[in-house]
Amino acid sequence: MSASAWYSWSTVVAVALAFAATLSACLLTSLVVLSWRGGKGQAAPKNDSSAASVSQPADVRGLATLHIVWAFVLSSLPILLVAWRASSFVALVVAALLGICGFMVLKALVLRRAWGDPLAWSARLERLRTRRLFLAVGVVALASAPLLFGAFMLIGAPESAMNLGPIFVTLLGLSTLSSLFAALFIALPYCTPSPRLAALVPLALVVANVVYQPLADAENPLLKKATASTVEKYESDGKCVHVQRSLVRALQDQADDAVQDSKRSEGVPAMFFVSAEGGGIRAAYWTAMGLANLEETIPNFEDRIATMSGVSGGSLGIATWLAAVEATDSLIERRSLIHRFLSSDLLSPAIAGLLFLDTPRLFFGPLWFSARRDDVFEATIVNRWRQIAGADADLFARPLVNLCFKRMKHPPTVYFGATEVLMGAFAPMGNTNFGMPGGDRKFVNGLLRQSDLIRTNVVHSVVMSARFPFLSPTADVAVSLENVHDYLATDQAPLPRWIRVKMNDGKTPEGFPTIPGSARLGMLVDGGYFDNSGLTMTRYALNILGQHVPEPRPAVVVANEPQRRKRTFNAAFEARSQVATHVLHFSNDPTSACVDPAGWESTASSDVREALDRAKFRPRCRFEVDELEALFRPRWLSWVSSPVETILAVRAGHAAHELNAMEPQLLTRLYPSALFNYSLAGELTRQLCKGRNSLRTDECLSAGGQYGPTWRIRASGDLPGADAVKARAECKNLSQSPPLPLGWALHSDDTVLMQCLSASGALSARVQIAEAEENYRFVAASNKVEQVADAASVPAPDLPRRRRPR
User: Rounded to whole angstroms, how far apart are CA atoms 705 and 312?
Assistant: First the structure.
């Protein structure tokens, strides 16, 4: 959080209110407990000595001191921590003033001359004992007030939490929740004769609300109006461009368009397949900024993309770039929109939704607000983009299936990948027909087209692709029992004919009541659990492009698309073997960058230093020292951390396998194609190796060359029209030990670094694609010469004329 946030009146007022509410709630809770204990002390036998009668109030008074200190620390410590984190003098002054005011209130209202008189203190506790219920109700009211205020703010303006920052939102929420905990588990139970038994009641409520979960996700209550207006707006919009609902047909159209465009421009027919791995907001920024830079280095790049596949943060990056393309025609303005949007604090609203909406619902159940933290996150994305790009910028709120594109001549097929929990399968959500690739999933895929996913919008699909358990809830996909009945009675369902006849062939008889209720079809979590690379759908699309062959059909006119010409599916099929298929993979993990390990002797452990001395090896990159440290580091709780470490390691291994398997798959194509790993670590290594004095450039690059099978040492050369990109690619004043960008929050220095590295990556990608195009021209010319030679030496056979299908 920036220090300037403390200068806004809203922040100062929020700090003061939170401090006052927390301090008062904790103080009243202490008084309730003390009055209950004091009441027990007053019930002592009358023949007790005066010393004993005085010592009992004195003991209670000592306990009161501890309670008051506890209340003061609990309410003041979060403010002091935020002040220290903000490094702001104003924040420290505000925290100090609040602490002084709180101490004066405690002294005036609680101690007030009774501190030195045990009998007066005992009498005061006796009066409070008869009013414990009123005090407890006051505690509940004070604890609920800031939670209600925060919930109303999130529902009315979800993006308002961005003004406070994640650290302040976290501490503010924890402070208010501590007051609620004190009210429900301490204050209210001590109003009853058996406090310990009474404390089990709120605990039972929490357990019941945790165990009971709704069968399926409800529609986002914060986006109902926006989604409804968007659906109504684009249902009859004739300016929209859609892709084919079948992936096979969509790829054929893209291939045919590429061949026809190359004939007019005398270029190489090429299709680009984009995949983006997960990695939080860092992945989103790296992917979106990289796509924006590629528009400057690759001619007509946005109209030559066949598929775009992302998971987690990569999905958000793809969606942001698509929204920026539609928002403006200026490439400079697109980069500005992407930077302003993804530099926003999107984490604070999600944290606020967890603390002010989801956690209180564990206590209050259905009495609390129905919106969840994922609903707040989705609404923040939609509202924030409209604030930056304009009120009409509504791509995030549009339905994903049959997605409407406005500015693209040849729009791509878009997929946001998730992981299905019940079957452990990859679940892509895209603008074509829904379905899980691979395996015998005909039954599930048929029901998916009847499920709630068919009506989902872009932002909901993006967030479902990035739902990390515990940090965000799972997405439960439901299908109505009526639709299940109708589907099971059709010819597509895997049921015998006699059962379908008894089910009236899927038609509900007249007057027969509908089947109420719904069934859970699946549970979706972060797509990175299955494949964090995002390459699963890219490989699936390439397989379809090379293998799935439909029957030839006569010339047709594509309905509702007057801008498309007459075409034959024979020509479209021929185009599939003529195009080059370039794969662009965006990877954003910076940990494998070759950062200068200067000073490692003073920071490394003795075991690592001894191992390196015996091997006579001097580390060239920081990650080499870190890997050795991990080997020698003791693992005290390995039985607890091993399952999580296994999941993360398997995810990384699966992603590396997908990337390594992509190059052999491209080699099976008839014409040369490029595989470029748009690596954040690779581009950072390129920049760092230029300024390394202790190591030659080639040795530095080879030491950090762990960025995929096609990572090469390349120079940008002379690229026409790329002068502006070259100027941005010069990372000036780059430290040899730069802080690596984090996945959950970006600093301004991180965005500046990634802008430079992204421009450098766009130049590298252009060089590699240019080489692949030169190879394409050579192979195409060689094939043409061979065809001419074969035609001159071998007479053409007299084959019967092929009949066209009716």
Answer: 26
